[in-house]
Amino acid sequence: MADTDPTGPVMDRDEVDRALARLGAEHEAIETSLLALQDHAGRRLLEGAHLTGVTEERWTATEASITLLWTYFDAYADALRRARDIRSRRRWSSREDLVELTELLRGEPVTLAANAQAPHAGRLSERCSLVTLVDRMNELYATSLDVIVAADAVWSALPARIDLLAAELQRTGRLAHSAGVRPGEHPAGDDLERITRTLTRLREQVVSDPLAYWRKAEGSSAPGGGRPDTTVYDREARALEDVRREIDAVLTVRQDAEKRILRLRDVLSRADRTLAEARTARGEVLAKIASTEVPVVSGPPTVLQEQLSTAAEYRRHAQWHRLSPLLESLERKAEDELLRARESLTAVTAPLAVRAELRGRLDAYKAKVARYGLAEDPELVERYEKARRMLWSAPCDLRAADRAVLRYQQAASELFGSAPRVPGQGGGPDDQRGPGA
After folding, report:
1. Which of 202, 218, 269, 293 gives a 20 to 30 Å CA spacing to 363?
2. DSSP sequence for 105-169
3. Spatial CA neighbour of 348 closest among 300, 283, 291
């Protein structure tokens, strides 16, 4: 059985050499990481920035962690150097050397003073192993790197994007001013002012407190696992895009305002003429058609003409931001008014259309009766004359006329089945349908 000491079995020379090689590799890796952390651009920015809020609090703790990291690393390097010195005394280490090396490599050879032991501040000192020391350094390194990478990521992403958006905001502001879109006069002007204030405040907060705009990825333990929070930036970018569209609409109004106003006048004029025609037609219907309810035709709305005059006034004074919504509203209302006028004309003239349809049907059947050689039939002549008198007299009773035309059709249809056609009097559509027509 191997010799033992309080740390366990005494290591042999091969175990010592392997342990020293592993610890040496760890030492190089830790030193490289610490130097990279020292030179990290995010760290240099944090050291020179005026910090506030969450970032100030976490950076203060991180600076203490980095100082503690170097303290731990120096202790680790010192223990490793002592172990190497002992191993290099002779080619074949003595038992005393191996016992001492075992204590250094497997025991708790590192004594940490109280000012380097934040987690154990109630004790004057603490002894720990090299493995424990490496674990602590890894933990401190990960938390420190997480703060530095997160702050650097926010600073790399947001301020530049905010500056670009601010530049676009200035260009949009100049364009808005030229189009008459100003704060207090147009909602888009008020939006531009609000976006300007928000972006200014956002940039100040991002520069002084970047960690307030960092969202750590859920379930991620890697340093820097997460993304910058661009919620406020994205909202203002969308708002600016809406303002740009509004200003484009205003500028479009400036370019074709005269054309649109002339088109509106034409639509409203057509609506007025249609209503006038409907009123004339209503008088004619009341005079010519009996027992019919004819809807009343209202006059043209004066408010649309007043709004059209206001639109023309806005155009003369280059108030494009006010003209734009007014023209859009007027165009919808003018089309609705023209549709209403047409519907009124259709409703008023419906009885005349019914009378015209009855007249056409009566004449069509008279022509058909002639083709069958029944034009002199006394009953048909009587029924035709009765229907004709009703349809061509004023006022015309449409219900009675409809019944008279129907009786004439029925009488003619009954005779069509028994009467032969008169030779040489065909040629209409009915003559081409064959014997079974």
Report:
1. 293
2. HHS--EEEEGGG-GGGTTSSEEEE-HHHHHHHHHHHHHHHHHHHHHHHHHHHHHHHHHHHHHHHH
3. 283
Q: What is the mean pLDDT of each run of 10 residues along the chain (437 residues)?
A: 52 79 87 89 89 93 91 87 78 71 76 57 70 88 91 93 95 86 83 94 95 84 81 95 88 83 91 88 78 72 88 82 85 91 85 85 86 82 85 81 87 72 44 34
Residue in the structure block whose two tokens are 């009855």: 358
DSSP letter (8 states) at residue 410: H
Q: pLDDT at position 114, please? A: 58
CA distance 146 to 140: 10
Q: Distance (Å, rounded) from C-alpha 266 to C-alpha 244?
A: 31
- Which string of DSSP letters, residue by residue, matches 212-238? GGEEEPTT--STT-EEE--HHHHHHHH
Overall pTM > 0.70: no
How many helices (H) and strands (E) are present in the chain, helices listed first?
Answer: 11, 8
Residue 377, token pair as written in the block: 């039939």
Pairing of strands 125-128, 110-113: antiparallel
pLDDT at position 332 is 92
What residues form DSSP beta bridges with 215?
Answer: 227
Distance of CA 419 to CAs 121, 140, 368, 378, 385, Å? 127, 116, 12, 15, 21
Q: Give the phi and the psi of residue 226 in degrees, each rounded to 5.
A: 160, -160
Closest CA to 270 of 183, 326, 334, 322: 334
